[in-house]
Write a structure and sequence with these properties.
Layout lengths: L8 H38 L6 H17 L4 H26 L1
Helix pairs in contact: 1-3, 2-3
Pfam families: CM_2
GO molecular function, one term: chorismate mutase activity
Organism: Kineosphaera limosa NBRC 100340
Length: 100
């Protein structure tokens, strides 16, 4: 049985690009969560609720449009945003509990 061939250079290049994109996504998500943590503190100080359905609806519409323009499945983009927003609301509730 022969040893597996080394992956072609193009495959290695694409994998390196994917790794770089994944790293950028992690850092961008971290920055987003730093911003939403500040929002959570401001909401708690102002007595605002952790969730804002109107804002969430605006975000969904904006993200779906961005996804379409980027040739990304809008339903996938919406699911991704819903996951992120769910986590943000969880953080905001925790902040409100701590500060309230």
């Amino acid at each position: 049985m022969s040893a597996p061939a080394d992956p072609p250079a193009e495959l290695l290049d694409l994998r390196a690009s994917i790794d770089n994109i994944d790293a950028a996504l992690v850092y961008l998500l971290a920055e987003r969560f730093r911003c939403t943590q500040r929002v959570g503190h401001l909401k708690a100080q102002q007595g605002l609720p952790p969730a804002d359905p109107d804002r969430e609806a605006q975000q969904i519409a904006r993200l779906r449009a961005l996804a379409e323009s980027a040739d990304l499945d809008p339903a996938f983009a919406e699911k991704f945003l819903a996951f992120v927003v769910e986590e943000v609301i969880r953080h905001h509730r925790a902040i409100a509990d701590q500060e309230g």
